[in-house]
User: Fold this.
Amino acid sequence: MLQKIGFQPGINKQITPTGAEGQWVDCDNVRFRYGTPEKIGGRGVPIDKVLQAAKIVTPSELCAIDILFDGPGTVESVQRFLTYVDDKDPYMFNSTKMMAIPQGKNETEWLDCYEELVQMEGVDVIGFSKLSIPESFVGDHHTDGNCTRGRIKCLDFLVDHNMTPDVFGKETHLLGSDNLGLQELSYYYEKNYDFIRSNDTSMPFVYGYNGIKIKDNKVNHILMDKLDFNKQLTSDEMEAVDYNFLAWRTLNVK
Assistant:
C-alpha cells in the first residue's frame, strides 16, 4: 500500500537529524515554493530523504535522482545515488531494481547521458521521460503529441543503432504519456518492440476526470493541469474515466 510521506517546508537547524522527523535540517541551493523544496537549476530531493521514504514503502523499483534537462548533471547524480544507497543499505541496493532516467536539452546531450547510464553498473532499468525526450528530440514537451512523436523518434533511433536497453541487459520503462499515448503504444505493438517492459500513466484518469473520452486512440489536446484531489467527480466524469480505462486496457487484446 502506498503511504504519503509529508515534510514540513523550511529548514530547521535548531534540531538534530535524528529528532527531525518530517523536517528538513540542511539543504544545498534549494528554495521552497508552495511548501515544496525546489533545487536551483532543477527540482531535487535529498538522497537521504528518498532512502528514508523507500524504507517505509519497500518498493520493488527505485528511481535514482535525475536533474531535469541536464545530462551531465544526471549522470553524476545517478552515480552518487547508487553509491549512497549501496553504502547505507546494501540489502535494499541488492534487492531493489534501480531505474535511471536520461536527461538532456537536445539529442546529443540526451544520447550522451543515455550511453553513460545504460552501461552503468547498478542500473537495472532505463526510464524514458515524457519531458526530456520530446524536449531533446522534437523541440519541446508542451505541444500536443510531442511526447509520442519524440519518444517514437528516440526509440526508433536506438533500435536502428542496436542501442536499446535490452542490448545492455537493462529493462525499458516508459514514464507517462500524452494525448496520443494510445497511438504511441499501438506503434510499438505494430513494430514488435517487445523490449519495452512497461508504461505508467494517469492519462485515462486525467482526461476522464475532465469529462473527456479517448476516441480513435487519442484526445485532441494535452492536459497539464494539476489534479484537485478533493474534487467529487460527476457521473459523466466517472463514466469517462471507466471508458478510458477500458480503452487503455484492451488496446492490444485480440
About this structure: The chain has a mean pLDDT of 88. Strands lie at 30-33, 36-39, 61-63, 97-100, 125-128, 171-175, 196-200.
